[in-house]
Design goal:
single chain, alpha/beta, 7-stranded mixed beta sheet, 41% helix
């Protein structure tokens, strides 16, 4: 697939998808253009979102949040065979230092402060609700909103020396872009309380030991790409269906979770992808999945 690169503002529909390979209205054929503070590329089924505000170490700007939500709308609508996994990275210097405190000082009205807080939360939720697998590649600091964005991804790969932190309680507040809930779902209550109550910084190595990240690597972007490519080689309908079941199993009974799994799993046995997998097994070759 040819590399697509784009470098605006506007909201995004962050509602839950309706199942693997869902169809929702008119397909957005191309990624949004005129993105600000973000770069986007798509190659061989792997999308890469790069936070691109290096002079502020990728601190959240309104333009960045709005561009991120527009990209998430595109990724939600894109066919399962076209976009199979997504990497979120900040480049080699920093993933994101989170809230832009310099800009926050200029928010002199309640309306301005509420708009910024809503933007931070909505952009994190837009990533969390994507129907395809997401991988955060963490180099350098991942603070506040930056760490919350990483927690919204399905998987996290970190440099061993990266610094992670939810510093909000040291500012008299607490993580407001979903971090309290996202971290609590990922690790034990005791670990989550330690990291949030103390607002302490911890390394990528410790993050792996605590279960905050999946793996560490000195070549973070390469490791994230290898992981994404491994996922992309599998059947996209099956991968998306499994994600939807795992996300949908929150706060429901075991019986309801099994019912959801059965509802989404049964149709996959009738897909061209499953037939291709059986044929490939018989012919002793790797299957070529097309997301249908």
């Amino acid at each position: 697939m040819t590399m697509l690169s784009t470098s605006s503002t506007g909201g995004a529909n962050t509602s839950k998808p309706h199942g693997p390979g869902h169809q929702r209205g008119e397909l957005l054929e191309e990624p949004p253009r005129n993105l600000k503070d973000i770069e986007f590329s798509l190659k061989d089924g792997v999308a890469t979102i790069t936070l691109d505000r290096p002079h502020r170490l990728n601190a959240l700007s309104e333009e960045m949040g709005e561009s991120l939500m527009r990209l998430c709308e595109y990724l939600t609508e894109a066919p399962a065979d076209k976009v199979r996994a997504c990497i979120v990275t900040g480049g080699s210097r920093a993933f994101s230092t989170g809230r832009d405190l310099k800009a926050s000082k200029l928010h002199t009205t309640l309306a301005q402060r509420e708009r910024y807080m809503k933007l931070a939360l909505d952009s994190v939720l837009a990533v969390q609700r994507l129907p395809l697998p997401t991988i955060a590649a963490l180099s350098g600091p991942a603070f506040g909103w930056g760490l919350e964005l990483a927690l919204a991804c399905d998987l996290r790969v970190s440099s061993p020396s990266s610094l992670l932190c939810l510093p909000e309680t040291s500012l008299g507040i607490f993580p407001g872009a979903g971090g309290v809930v996202l971290l609590r779902e990922l690790v034990s209550p005791s670990v989550a309380k330690d990291l949030i109550f103390t607002a302490r910084r911890f390394s990528g190595e410790e993050a792996r030991a605590l279960g905050v990240v999946n793996s560490v690597s000195t070549a973070v972007d390469d490791a994230a790409l290898e992981l994404a490519e491994t996922i992309a080689r599998n059947g996209p309908l099956g991968v998306r269906g499994a994600k939807e079941v795992m996300e949908g199993a929150h706060n429901v009974s075991f019986t309801e979770a099994i019912r959801l799994a059965t509802q989404l799993r049964a149709p996959l046995s009738e897909t061209d992808d499953f037939k291709e997998a059986l044929q490939a097994f018989e012919e002793k070759r790797k299957p070529v999945f097309k997301g249908r």
